[in-house]
């Protein structure tokens, strides 16, 4: 039961960011996974997100052997960088959607608008890369190079697992022998 709750929290935590970004990048229409929230659902989602953050923190603390001070500093970096990263991802999504809409016009697509959107997409990717460099520099101020590399690897594993869970209902593993 606890594993299902953790998986549900993971999916809910990143649905608004990675789900929309992934679907948009693949040119698919974005379909909500659940009906629109009603009263009482938002506090439940917040609780699940909080549980996900706490569980993720426990995993990071254990696997990287972080001290209390390092965990506190990591929280601070995550709060700062996370907000900026989410804002960039939302901007990238909006640009991709606009570009997709413009390209759907075929031969009547506005060449100048497409060029402008492509330039914006490139600029946002550059900003995201710079943010990633800034994050690693901040992490390096209180983590060893090995801990930073392990942390980056853990983040990638979590994102991959979340993508996998989103592909199947309730986070079940896909059947390798259909």
Instruction: Please give the domain count.
Output: 2
User: How would you state the average pLDDT, rounded?
Assistant: 78
Oligomeric status of the shown chains?
Answer: single chain
Low-confidence stretches: 1-37
Strand content: under 5%
Distance between the termini: 26 Å
How many helices in DSSP terms?
5
The secondary-structure class comes to mainly alpha
Radius of gyration: 19 Å
For the largest beta-sheet, the strand count, sense and barrel status come to: none
Could you characterize what this model shows?
The model is unreliable at 1-37 (pLDDT under 50). The chain has five helices and no strands. Helix 1 (2-25) crosses helix 5 and helix 3 (68-103) packs antiparallel against helix 4. It folds into two domains: 1-65 and 152-178, no CATH class; 82-135. The longest helix is centred in the middle third of the chain and has 36 residues, at 68-103. The protein has helices at 2-25, 41-64, 68-103, 111-140, 145-167. It is an all-alpha fold and 178 residues long.
């Amino acid at each position: 039961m606890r594993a299902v709750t953790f998986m549900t929290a993971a999916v809910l935590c990143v649905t608004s960011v990675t789900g929309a970004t992934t679907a948009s990048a693949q040119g698919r229409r974005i379909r909500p996974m659940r009906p629109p929230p009603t009263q009482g659902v938002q506090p439940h989602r917040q609780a699940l997100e909080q549980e996900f953050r706490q569980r993720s923190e426990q995993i990071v603390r254990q696997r990287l052997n972080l001290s209390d001070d390092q965990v506190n500093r990591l929280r601070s970096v995550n709060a700062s960088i996370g907000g900026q990263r989410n804002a960039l991802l939302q901007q990238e999504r909006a640009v991709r959607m606009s570009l997709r809409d413009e390209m759907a016009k075929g031969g009547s697509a506005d060449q100048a608008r497409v060029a402008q959107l492509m330039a914006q997409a490139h600029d946002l990717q550059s900003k995201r890369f710079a943010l990633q460099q800034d994050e690693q520099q901040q992490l390096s101020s209180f983590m060893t190079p090995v801990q930073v590399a392990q942390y980056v690897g853990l983040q990638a594993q979590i994102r991959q697992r979340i993508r996998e869970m989103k592909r199947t209902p309730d986070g079940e593993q896909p059947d390798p022998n259909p």
